[in-house]
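Anyone up for a design puzzle?
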């Protein structure tokens, strides 16, 4: 391997006519310096081959789904799905002005009992929506707050809770069978 490469390099260097060898000598390049440069290049190429990178492609979904709830400090506020969406739009407008007000949010499912909803928003607007919900502290002068339970690229994963799973180590699981 390396002996053959060095032999090829030596043959290449010696294949120049005497004038080329004289020109190399004039500019200060000797056989030893060219050999040294050749060895450094070989080391660099071996190092580059050993440090290959793995490229991971992430596919971004168009929409993101959120499981959120609204809680008022003093209970008794009547809120339906339309009012819930309006409160979200007000939060976006307060935090981001007209740009925030232009964010389209869909209320997919709403429970009036605990003011909890599944929302759908474009992925590009997720941070804007999430931050405006987090910063909301009142509506119509009444203290309130949003709580974000889950965020997911899939609506199906919002309905699943890991709290309902019984996690067993593999040894205990096999013993139970």
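Challenge accepted. My sequence:
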């Amino acid at each position: 391997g390396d002996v053959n490469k060095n032999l090829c390099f030596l043959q290449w260097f010696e294949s120049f006519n005497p004038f080329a060898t004289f020109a190399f000598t004039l500019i200060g390049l000797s056989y030893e310096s060219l050999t040294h440069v050749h060895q450094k290049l070989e080391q660099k190429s071996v190092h580059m081959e050993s440090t290959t990178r793995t490229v991971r492609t992430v596919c971004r979904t168009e929409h993101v789904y959120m499981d959120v709830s609204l809680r008022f400090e003093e209970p008794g506020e009547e809120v339906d799905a339309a009012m819930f969406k309006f409160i979200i739009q007000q939060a976006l407008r307060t935090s981001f002005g007209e740009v925030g007000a232009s964010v389209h949010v869909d209320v997919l499912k709403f429970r009036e009992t605990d003011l909890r909803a599944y929302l759908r928003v474009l992925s590009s607007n997720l941070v804007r929506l999430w931050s405006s919900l987090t910063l909301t502290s009142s509506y119509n002068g009444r203290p309130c707050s949003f709580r974000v339970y889950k965020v997911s690229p899939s609506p199906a994963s919002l309905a699943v809770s890991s709290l309902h799973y019984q996690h067993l180590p593999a040894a205990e699981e096999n013993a139970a069978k």
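A detail worth pointing out: The beta strands are 63-72, 105-111, 116-122, 138-139, 142-152.
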